[in-house]
Amino acid sequence: MDSPWEEDPRADYAPEADWAKLSNEFTNSGYREGIIAGKESALQEGFDAGFAHVGVPIGRDLGSMRGIISAIASFLSSKSQEDPTTLTTAREISSSLAGIRFSDIVPVDQEAEQHAREHLDANDDLIEQSEELLQKREMEGLEDMLQRLTAGATSRPLQGRPTREDVIRLKEGILTLCDQLGLDVTP
């Protein structure tokens, strides 16, 4: 080899380099896919547990209460009665229940909040909110405003979003109405 330009001194090395690069890319790709699959599996397990132990029971209870009070209000409005306060009470409970969102009464997920706090940068004071969450909150604000403007809404002054304690109070109101009407109903 008289001239450095005649032959590539690493001609035998090129296929090995390609093989090493290809092997490295497959290893990295497999690693990423494994991480993604692990995250998806953990997410699915968390969703399943939350759905079964939180979402379904709360949704069923709230739906049952809404159905019972709607039936009572419908029954009372179709019946001529001497005491209109019972119908008014039923309508107020129904209106209050209609304004409750799942997010208002679901228990706080302490584990998720702790996880979020752990992953904040040292300089961050607040968790950044995604665009989707901001849009959801904006829509909920519009829904709240619309409910305050809706005819037949309760005259109770707005004191923030309903809580689980409010739901318990409304459930007690339904049971009281059922007792007054002689109904054996369990919301």
Automatic annotation (TrEMBL):
This entry carries the following GO cellular component terms, namely: cytoplasm; nucleus
Domain spans labelled Essential protein Yae1 N-terminal? 30-69
List the Pfam families hit by this protein, alphabetically. Answer: Yae1_N
Q: Which organism is it from?
A: Suillus fuscotomentosus
The subcellular localization recorded is: Cytoplasm; Nucleus
In the record, the note on similarity to other proteins reads: Belongs to the YAE1 family.
| Keyword set includes Acetylation | no
Against InterPro entries, the record matches this protein to: Essential_protein_Yae1_N, Yae1-like
- Keywords, sorted A to Z: Cytoplasm, Nucleus
* Keyword presence, Nucleus: yes
Q: What is this protein called?
A: Protein YAE1
What is the first-listed, main subcellular location in coarse terms? cytoplasm
Query: From which domain of life does this come?
Result: Eukaryota
